[in-house]
Design goal:
alpha/beta; Chitobiase, domain 2; Jelly Rolls; six-stranded mixed β-sheet; 28 strands
């Protein structure tokens, strides 16, 4: 499926990511000059300062007369919400209007993306986000990231209208935040004797690794993010992922004196559930809350092995005293103590989906990472959810064939799979879906050791997430996204972001079917897939329903070259709201360059002809 010249031209002129809700092209363009005036009410002075960079950065010194960039605070625009904006560009002026400074800031980000060689194409835009939580998690427990790298990461999030930075600060392998009441947390807990380079076979860099953030530095990050309308959500892990803290204060553990961990993976050493340990957590959180004004405080709660608790007579005694039937209920008890404490301070607890086990604390919000199951269960119980699924949002996974990529933790998560993911599970009702606050991508850093590699793994997949979380589902189209992303990559380069280059084959659709082309009865259909042929070898053929009232049934496929069937896969599959075996595999041999390659399939619409979809052919 080839984009038309008109579509490509529009994508280049208005290559905005995430895609706005309403965009009406206009004739003409506004020319920026160093004399262009910027007019803003005092409430928007901070936002307007970001627009000044556009003016000061232009080379033009042509007098602009009355031409100006005007900011307007208009609280009578209920349709665009608290983060929406309108942008009106004409040859004579630019006006950004919003109900709040945050909305005006996002209008500036769109304006930044529209600038081409000092000129802004005329346009009318009305825009507002689909979800209120749009962000990313950065793990600095495994590998410390310099302050400059974190600020740059925040800048890039802001450029894509993201509003949440989840800062993972404590781990088995390192405690990274200064806590004044417990100085050993950083004096001892921030240092490990060596670092794992590969898990299997176990390979290490045999030198001390260290680093932490002072409270002053953490406050600096909070202020920097706030100026860009990003909320910083701190994460202090408990009751698992605690070995660095236990190394600093052994009384927090279960009897064994431990060093800071040097291996990755799930580690069995966890906090004990004594009242004194709960007191320690409260003391730590007091200092954390003094640094981070975030309504949400993340407490981890994931991957907490129960081995030590099961083997501990003391923990077994505590379970009996507290009327708890098993160790899962003990973890729930632990989390409830913290939930109650945070609530008493006007904050909300958020944790990974394991906090569901043993009963969920009343005010808790679930961050669903093990697929969507945790989010579905929490939403059905009336709890708020942030989607962070391994299925599409774990960016420590490979982006392409591991043979061609730098070392990563495993998995495979190419750009197309990220873009196609929707964070509203089909298993919940429209009412329950109101509990889905939004989503975020995760940057776990076991093997992400440098800021450069961090950026390589985050972008452009993070760009896809920005559109997933901001744009209406009906506006999302991968072909359009790729056309805009091709332009956008130059912007990232200009910002000094080490984004991974785009692949030649991005999983773009090769062919399509449309409503009216199929019927309730099986028919043999043919599609020209020559454009996808890049040499002999194995190929996958994916039928992907995109819209319409009915699914498509596919009863096997054949590949035809010069009138002869050269490969086939006869299995049955279907694609609709639910996909069943909708990928076929064929091995193409002896196909000469320039030959016409045709896909032949026996298909039917289950109940009629109202079915639309894409066929993607990719070399494996």
């Amino acid at each position: 499926m080839v984009a038309t010249a008109a579509a490509l031209a529009a994508a280049t002129r208005y290559a905005i990511i995430p895609q706005p809700v309403v965009l009406i092209p206009q004739e003409g363009e506004f020319e920026l000059s160093q004399s262009t005036q910027i007019v803003a009410p005092k409430e928007l002075a901070g936002v307007a300062s970001f627009a000044k960079e556009l003016v000061s950065g232009t080379k033009s010194t042509t007098p602009s007369g009355n031409a100006s960039i005007r900011f307007k605070l208009n609280k009578s625009q209920p349709r665009i919400g608290n983060e929406g904006y309108t942008l009106d560009v004409s040859p004579d002026s630019i006006e950004i209007s919003a109900r709040t400074p945050a909305g005006a800031f996002y209008g500036v980000q769109t304006l930044r993306q529209l600038v081409q060689n000092g000129k802004v194409p005329s346009v009318i835009i009305e825009d507002t986000p689909r979800f209120g939580w749009r962000g990313a998690m950065l793990d600095t427990g495994r590998h410390y990231m310099p302050m400059a790298a974190i600020k740059k990461f925040i800048d890039t999030l802001a450029f894509h209208k993201m509003n949440s930075f989840h800062w993972h600060l404590t781990e088995d392998q390192g405690w990274r935040l200064e806590i004044k009441k417990y100085p050993k947390l950083t004096e001892i807990g921030s240092k490990r004797s060596k670092s794992m380079l590969k898990y299997s076979p176990a390979t290490y860099e045999d030198k001390e690794y260290s680093g932490f953030y002072t409270q002053a530095e953490a406050k600096e990050i909070v202020a920097y993010a706030k100026a860009r309308f990003i909320n910083v959500v701190p994460e202090i892990e408990m009751p698992g992922h605690a070995q660095a803290a236990i190394a600093a204060y052994p009384e927090l553990g279960n009897g064994e004196k431990l060093p800071v961990a040097t291996t990755w993976g799930v580690i069995k050493h966890v906090y004990n559930p004594e009242e004194s340990t709960i007191k320690f957590q409260k003391d730590v959180l007091d200092e954390v809350m003094a640094i981070f004004p975030s309504k949400f405080i993340h407490v981890g709660g994931d991957e907490c092995p129960k081995d030590e608790w099961k083997a501990s007579p003391r923990v077994q005694q505590l379970m009996k005293e507290r009327g708890l039937k098993d160790e899962h209920e003990m973890q729930s008890w632990f989390i409830r103590q913290i939930d109650t404490y945070l609530a008493s301070k006007g904050r909300r607890l958020i944790g990974w989906d394991e906090i569901l086990e043993g009963g969920l604390a009343p005010g808790a919000t679930v961050m669903s990472w093990r697929g969507e199951a945790g989010g579905i269960a929490a939403a059905k119980e009336g709890h708020d959810v942030v989607m962070a699924s391994t299925n599409a949002l774990y960016f420590d996974y490979y982006q392409a064939d591991p043979k061609t990529e730098p070392h990563a933790i495993g998995g495979l998560l190419p750009l197309r799979k990220v873009y196609d993911f929707d964070i509203i599970p089909k298993e919940i009702t429209a009412e329950q879906s109101k509990h889905i606050l939004g989503g975020q991508f995760q940057m776990w850093t076991e093997y992400i050791r440098t800021p450069e590699y961090l950026e390589y793994m985050a972008w452009p997949r993070g760009v896809a997430v920005s559109e997933m979380l901001w744009s209406p589902k009906s506006k999302r189209n991968f072909r359009s996204f790729v056309d805009r992303l091709t332009v956008h990559m130059d912007r990232l380069k200009a910002m000094g972001v080490n984004a991974r280059p785009l692949d030649a084959n991005l999983g773009l659709p090769t062919a399509e079917w449309k409503a009216g082309q199929v019927s309730n009865d099986y028919q043999v259909k043919n599609w020209d897939i020559t454009s996808a042929f890049v040499g002999n070898g194995k190929y996958s053929v994916r039928f992907q329903y995109t819209s319409g009232g009915i699914r498509l049934d596919i009863d096997g496929i054949e590949i035809v070259v010069d009138g002869k069937v050269i490969a086939s896969d006869s299995h049955y599959g279907r694609t609709g709201n639910v996909h069943v075996d909708n990928v076929w595999t064929v091995d193409l041999k002896g196909v000469s360059a320039g030959a016409k390659v045709t896909l032949r399939a026996k298909v039917r619409g289950d109940g009629g002809s109202d079915s639309n979809g894409e066929i993607t052919v990719s070399k494996l």
